[in-house]
Amino acid sequence: MAKDLVEGMTFTASDPVVVDDDLVGAFGAVLGATSDAFTIPVIARVATLLVRVAMDADVLPHDGVVHTAESLRIRRDPRTGDVLRGLLTVETIHRRVGATQLQLRSDILADGENSPIAVTTSTLIFRNPGE
Fold first, then answer.
1. Who wins on pLDDT, 13 or 34?
2. What percent of the chain has pLDDT over 70?
3. 3-state secondary structure the chain
């Protein structure tokens, strides 16, 4: 699994996330709030989909992953009507003492825009299989 990882490897989710009243309402019900701008949950949803794509490709394990750090830069909030897609890039890989540490970047893109509306950087660590 981790042996197939290479820096610069990318993943995209096949299905976009549409920011509509149903999505915003679902977040509102969970958070107990009403708003048309749930920036962080919407961005997190796209980023989570990207990690699942990497897991389904058997490049990341489905369990035993520890999320050790994350940063988020937002250029603009997602808005109702946005169609969001993501691009996950493996930026760095460090293997040592039976574990792999990855730094992943998720670019969250809105249809029709050239620049990401948000960029997340995550650090994950997991045990190397068979070690």
1. 13
2. 83
3. CHHHCCCCCEEECCCCEECCHHHHHHHHHHHCCCCCCCHHHHHHHHHHHHHHHHHHCCCCCCCCCEEEEEEEEECCCCCCCCEEEEEEEEEEEEEECCEEEEEEEEEEEECCCCCCCEEEEEEEEEECCCC
Position 35 scores a pLDDT of 57
Residue 48 — φ and ψ, nearest 5°?
-65, -40
* Region for 91 from its dihedrals, namely left if φ exceeds 0, alpha if ψ lies in -120 to 50, beta otherwise: alpha
State the Cα–Cα distance between residues 131 and 122, nearest whole angstrom.
24
Tell me what the pLDDT averaged over the chain comes to.
Answer: 85
